[in-house]
Please model this.
Amino acid sequence: MGFSSITKSLVKDNAASDNAAERKAASGFKSIFVSSPTHIWSSKVSWRVALTAFLTIMLVQTFVLNVGGVAQFRANELKSLELQARSAIASVVDPESRGTRTSPFNESQIERMFRTTHIRGLTVYSYKYDFIKSYGEPVHLIAKFGQLDETYMSENGNVYELIFKSSDIQSTFIVVVQMDSSRVEEKVHDYVMDSIKIMGILSLLVTSVLMIALGKWLLEPILFMRANLVAAFKNPELPEIEDSPYSSSDEIGAAIALTQKLIKQNAESLKHIKSTAEDKIHKLAYYDSLTGLPNRTLFVQTLSEKGNVRRGEDVPRFAIVTLDLDHFKDINDSMGHNVGDAILRSVGKKLRASLPESAFVSRTGEDEFAIMMPLVDDALNARDVAERVAGVIKSQPFKVFNEEFQVRSSIGVSTYPDDGAEPDMVLKNADIALNRAKEEGRDTIKEYSEDFDRAVQERFQILRDLRDALEHNQLDLHYQPQLCLKTGQVIGAEALLRWWKPDNSKEGGSFVSPGVFIPVAEQSGLIVPIGQYVLRRACETSVRLKKDHGIDMRIAVNVSGNQFTHGDICSDVIKCVHDTGVDPKMLELEVTESVFMDDINHTVSILNDLHKIGVELAIDDFGTGYSSLSYLSQFPIDRLKIDQSFVRQALNDKENASIAKTIINLGHSLNLKVIAEGVETKEHENFLINQGCDEVQGFRYSRPVPEKKLVEFIESYNGDLNSFKG
Ligand code: C2E
Ligand code: MG
Ligand code: MG
Model:
């Protein structure tokens, strides 16, 4: 690249560049980059070198001139004056005058000599130094006696006197001559001036050659290197550098080759760093680090890419299956996160390995996976795909750290584009179906239906109405008696929430089942204030029963897991006991097994605190949850409540009967009372008596009733279990 092209590209690049730093750097170089070939003369470095060279040459020449040149020149001039005088005098000496005391010159000769030579005066002495005769300007020997070899030069250099001995002029006389030497000084002056001119021209010549050499061998390669560095600076990743035309056999060529190598190396490593970083960012943004599977974002993106077909083409159909591992949180909490993570990894691996290549498997949430599979075969529908996925999970237990875990999953299914034209909508619909599957007891597959949306809307309406009901005191408590199977006595009652929702019907309203509104309250967190309300009402009832009717009996209150995790159940109880004056022994809290799964240590410490206050504790619906039987002995509980499903089916299903039996034995072995709920018939009662169950509760004795009716029931009851019908 020539200097002009470097300069041009630089100027062009400068115009394009809006980077201040680049502009600054480039403008720094601009002063050097002037169009070829004058660039050498505008280079500061060149000028410095040239000036130094010029002055050095001048200095050396001046020194040489001073030390020998001028003195030698003057000496030569004087010598030639001397020779001129000597030959002139010698030629006019009269040989007859040898040995005489008369002047060897005649007047006319002398006169001509004065005219033709620079001699202006002449005095003749005998060889014994006697004065004989003087011509022209007076000049004397006297002053020079004893120093015959000496010459004399006047101060202004215009007069030069010298002595010729008799041998110099082949005579017997001594001649003292005065010469006009003013020309000599003029010549010396001219000589000095000429020398200076020559020196100047020479210096200029040398400097110019030096500059050209500098430009060619130093500046030009350096500018080339500089241009490459500028290109690398402007675009380090893709530097537009030219191959070096300079041989790398000299130092500068080698330096250029090295810079080019470095620029290329730097570009390579930058590219490498960038592409690694891009890969990493891509991985972080689109992949799950634990399982290595694509994440939700990539899932949605892939579905939208696959569904984005050209106009006129058929939109491909996909089964969208979302899967949530049942009770994964319990495994995580009880076995530790390492085990949880290992299970998730194994599930991901197994899904990937067992499903066909065309299936897109991703991890979309903590224990949630999503699979998309093209429905190419008409015989295959989304449900078939879901069943296949369920089969993969269920087929064999997962072996993690030498332990086997039987994993179950809840599955939601939707179909693209049937259940939504937008990919994330279809995925959300599969999630809605998944939530349904979870609500319906897990380990099931649920297909998305538009009714689900309606159900979601209804739940929002229930939540709004429930808030109103709580504010307007529309919530009430009913009580269901609990009886001792041995004595037949009423030993307590369970407080059950009732919501009478007024409407425009003939009846003026209807009861909303707790089975409907309790889950909504739990999901929204409204269960915490509702629970506080129930607790207070139950305590007030207990105090009233004793005070007004002399009835001393325990009231059981259902407590939700949310009140443990998001509320402060201990201070709620303490406050109620303090405010109402209820005897804590007359209060029982029913908690379900799910409470123990959240955080066992936290739960145990709360249960211990509650026990210290004096309230009794029961595990409700025992046998239906994910029983952590091994922890049961650590809990300070008083009662196990067998879930009504076992009681109801005990008579016609052996397995349920044996579960009920096992629970009773387990409870007794832990010194706990066992109460059975859902007792509807005499047969149920007999079965429970035979199994040694302690207490019962159910429609056989009484439905849940208002406080007033409960009092009536107790007051009218004769203590004989056989007096109940059915
Ligand atoms: P639960 O605590 O297991 O309550 C027992 C349920 O069984 C009650 O239903 C009761 O009416 C019903 N039941 C009692 N005996 C029989 C019987 O012989 N046959 C049949 N078929 N059912 C019987 P309910 O009142 O509808 O309550 C349902 C669930 O709602 C309760 O189950 C409890 O989990 C929840 N719940 C009710 N009130 C509250 C409350 O105040 N707070 C909380 N957190 N949950 C409550
Ligand atoms: Mg209960
Ligand atoms: Mg129950």
User: Anything to note?
Assistant: Residues 91-186 form one domain. The CA atoms of residues 397 and 403 lie 9 Å apart. The first strand starts at residue 119 and ends at 126. The mean pLDDT is 86.
